[in-house]
Amino acid sequence: MWIECGYKISDLERAFENADSAREGIDELVKVADHLLAEARKKEENGREYAAVEYYHRASLYYVRASWSILDDENEDKLDWHNRGLDAYKKVAELNSQYEIEKIDIDLPFHSEQMAAYFHKCGQEDAPTVLFVPGMDMQKEEFPNTPNNRFINRGMNVLAIDGPGQGETRLRGVCDDEPDKYQRAGSAAVDWLADQPEVDPSRIGVAGFSMGSYWGPRIAYEDERVSAVAVGMGCWYSKDILFNQAQPFFKKRYMYMAGMEDEDEFDEFAEDMTLYGIAENIDTPILIMHGEYDELQTREQAKLLYNNLAGPKQLQLYENEFHPMGGAGPDLMNDFVDWFPQVWSGEIEDDHAVAKLMPDYPVDSYIPSPRFEFLSQDNRPY
Question: What is the CATH number of the domain that holds 10?
Fold first, then answer.
């Protein structure tokens, strides 16, 4: 999935191939970013702006990824890398000739500081627009992929935010320390979008990956102006696997996002991070994309969300995929983006309810394993 965001295999190999620790890999990734930044400047000086955008974009990705890895806001490396990433992306916005990117700040109802975002404009007035909600391990610079923006290519605007606890907004002191805070921030983003001449207020959607797949439905629950949702790699119900069984960094990461240092306090907060009692009240059309072996949320919980949703819905379960779902990346991304025009064109009807297997080997002779029968409502695998 990093490749789908614009990362390059050759860059990652240079950084991590010979690294003996995560920190060494991060330091090497910064060296790659430094090289790309220098190359971007050369391309720009020589009038090769299209190439310069790609180099600036890759540099920005690696700087913000390096900054993300450090959970101390006073750390000089974190702040330096973060600022270099923002500066590189500023050049992306300045030089990008394919479409306009505007850096914006959105007022929040619960904090004096503003939420940072980028508004990717498709160049039309009253256009459909998607609010993209990054996951716990993402920042607004990482998605959509500017050189290959599938939303723009389909005539949609995109608003990519750093929500409470994320990226630039977290460094401004805005934490995600209340169960409904992120969804209220999402509603504030919808407020901003509804006032823009480029946006059709009747066609505003929400998309999210990983933890964004949890926040996305909550934003739709909070704000009835959201008319379509697409989410992938879910974290919808119990966070016990995520915070108590998976790698310890996940819990440390979210405690940083919440601005909490006391683990007992955080555990109590995390108990309310669920869609129980909420999904049942969401009638917005929702696409759910989930890996069969997702290590943070079981396939049974994907089916539970599908069953509990009150409106049009579609579940796509990807065989043999784990949480990043990288093996299905290109196919997943196209379905993810195409869900929105399907909804807004009326193709998805009010009684739409489809749960289907996305087989690893989609051949005519393929017979799904009995393990997929849980998708069925009449003992026949989809």
Answer: 1.20.1440.110
Backbone angles phi, psi at 231, to 5 degrees: -135, 155
Burial of 76 (0-12, 13-18, 19+ CB in 10 A): exposed
Nearest to residue 208, comparing CAs of 136, 259, 135, 149? 135
Asked if residue 381 belongs to a domain, the reply is no
Do 44 and 122 lie in a common domain?
no
Question: Could you tell me whether strands 115-121 and 100-106 are parallel, antiparallel, or unpaired per DSSP bridges?
Answer: antiparallel
Helices (H), 181-324: 181-194, 211-222, 240, 248-258, 263-270, 299-308
**Of 97, 124, 155, which residue is a domain's last?**
97
Residue-number span of the structural domain to which 333 is assigned: 100-375
What spatial distance separates the first Cα and last Cα of the chain, rounded to whole Å? 26
- Beta-strand pair 226-232/313-318: unpaired
Same domain, 283 and 213: yes
Q: Which residues is 127 bridged to in the sheet?
A: 199
Nearest to 253, CA basis, from 299, 310, 210, 283: 210
Hey, what's the torsion of the CAs at 70, 73, 79, 85, to 10 degrees? 60
CB 292 within 8 A of CB 321: yes
CB proximity list for 371: less than 8 A, separation 6 or greater:
none
Of 37, 65, 97, the last residue of a domain is 97
Check pLDDT > 50 for residue 382: no
105's enclosing H/E stretch is strand 100-106
| Structural domain total, the chain | 2
Q: Is 80 within a domain?
A: yes
Residue 380: pLDDT above 60?
A: no
**pTM, 2 dp:** 0.94
User: Residues 225-247: what's their mean pLDDT?
Assistant: 92
Say if residue 45's pLDDT is above 60. Answer: yes
Within the chain, what is the greatest distance between any pair of CA atoms?
64
Read off the tokens for 330: 């290109």
CATH of residue 231: 3.40.50.1820
Task: Report the C-alpha gap between 302 and 369 in whole angstroms.
Answer: 18
